[in-house]
């Protein structure tokens, strides 16, 4: 049995196979049929604008010889992409098999639907007779750039961003919940100034929120200006029309995008490079979070909630592997590799046009799909962990040497105030603390051996590793 003989076809990539359920929402916006459906939306909205005009031109037809569409005709046209399903996908594919051109196949598909208009609208409808208006004065890239921008915009706003914001909201809630939970820090892997678990999570909330602001302010650009961006064909057909104004109206108000007035044949894709770079940056921050949490689990600071019936290891039944974080790490890396390639490749085009962008953009769904899969696994992992209070308390109690920092800093302040015996504070604390196991008694004895003023001595002796967290709890408020 050859696997290629099995029907329906077996998915080649895990996004459409093993992980399909977790990434399927992107199919609505970034699959090939989704792109073709959006192309149809662009084509019919262009027809409607050309036939019915817009407010600035008095809502008069832009193209001579075309009557304004009736409300019923407009509804019929807009239903073409909305009804594009399995049958339509097959019909489009049949056209493309002949044309070897996907956008031309879209044009012919719309022509087919216009022929059916009398069945719904009656014999008086003009739609079968205005096929020439389909793709009027357009180059394929006029349709493609608008369709791609709208597909990506919708995929970001409807799928990726809600999942990303859910991660931020979850982390923010946990940061607030654990804002007072003291925890030993490790700098360079060595015990260091204590912090709180909430403050450490808030660091990620702050970092991710900065990227969220960039993403919410992201522009999605579009153009409709002909084969080399000059409106040459438009003017040849209708020289008295203000095609620049028509273009601006269509891109801005009909397509909901930012109008790009200066392009070659292609929209320059700079907005895409900006977007993918920001998503990749967010991916890398979350990758850092995955690694940190993985190490916290390894250290015992976080405990995992076992999933009933799940196998952690095929030979070691006691294990609960942090697989959700490992899966997220790997898929963030895959996403970044594709996003980096998209950002680097799409900003270049040979002179007025080449087709490297065409095949490259077909991987936008994969790039965001791997990120979406990682977001899904990261959220699952975050929901399956909780602080291990026993381990956290033990780590703090076993590392009294971390109080060397506040003691020597207080000694510096006392030396500046003129108290005796406070010289060389760093060196004195270093001699006591470095390379030794230090107990609470050792710390108190050292404090008593120095000429601290009464208030400072009382403050230092009251410190423990669990209370030496500065204003970490208050800093959580800045995570937004």
Automatic annotation (TrEMBL):
<protein>
    <submittedName>
        <fullName>Adenylosuccinate lyase</fullName>
        <ecNumber>4.3.2.2</ecNumber>
    </submittedName>
</protein>
<comment type="pathway">
    <text>Purine metabolism; AMP biosynthesis via de novo pathway; AMP from IMP: step 2/2.</text>
</comment>
<dbReference type="GO" id="GO:0004018">
    <property type="term" value="F:N6-(1,2-dicarboxyethyl)AMP AMP-lyase (fumarate-forming) activity"/>
</dbReference>
<keyword id="KW-0456">Lyase</keyword>
<dbReference type="InterPro" id="IPR024083">
    <property type="entry name" value="Fumarase/histidase_N"/>
</dbReference>
<dbReference type="GO" id="GO:0006188">
    <property type="term" value="P:IMP biosynthetic process"/>
</dbReference>
<dbReference type="InterPro" id="IPR008948">
    <property type="entry name" value="L-Aspartase-like"/>
</dbReference>
<feature type="domain" description="Adenylosuccinate lyase PurB C-terminal">
    <location>
        <begin position="349"/>
        <end position="469"/>
    </location>
</feature>
<dbReference type="Pfam" id="PF08328">
    <property type="entry name" value="ASL_C"/>
</dbReference>
<dbReference type="InterPro" id="IPR047136">
    <property type="entry name" value="PurB_bact"/>
</dbReference>
<dbReference type="Pfam" id="PF00206">
    <property type="entry name" value="Lyase_1"/>
</dbReference>
<comment type="function">
    <text>Catalyzes two reactions in de novo purine nucleotide biosynthesis. Catalyzes the breakdown of 5-aminoimidazole- (N-succinylocarboxamide) ribotide (SAICAR or 2-[5-amino-1-(5-phospho-beta-D-ribosyl)imidazole-4-carboxamido]succinate) to 5-aminoimidazole-4-carboxamide ribotide (AICAR or 5-amino-1-(5-phospho-beta-D-ribosyl)imidazole-4-carboxamide) and fumarate, and of adenylosuccinate (ADS or N(6)-(1,2-dicarboxyethyl)-AMP) to adenosine monophosphate (AMP) and fumarate.</text>
</comment>
<dbReference type="InterPro" id="IPR020557">
    <property type="entry name" value="Fumarate_lyase_CS"/>
</dbReference>
<feature type="domain" description="Fumarate lyase N-terminal">
    <location>
        <begin position="17"/>
        <end position="328"/>
    </location>
</feature>
<dbReference type="InterPro" id="IPR013539">
    <property type="entry name" value="PurB_C"/>
</dbReference>
<keyword id="KW-0658">Purine biosynthesis</keyword>
<comment type="pathway">
    <text>Purine metabolism; IMP biosynthesis via de novo pathway; 5-amino-1-(5-phospho-D-ribosyl)imidazole-4-carboxamide from 5-amino-1-(5-phospho-D-ribosyl)imidazole-4-carboxylate: step 2/2.</text>
</comment>
<dbReference type="InterPro" id="IPR000362">
    <property type="entry name" value="Fumarate_lyase_fam"/>
</dbReference>
<dbReference type="InterPro" id="IPR022761">
    <property type="entry name" value="Fumarate_lyase_N"/>
</dbReference>
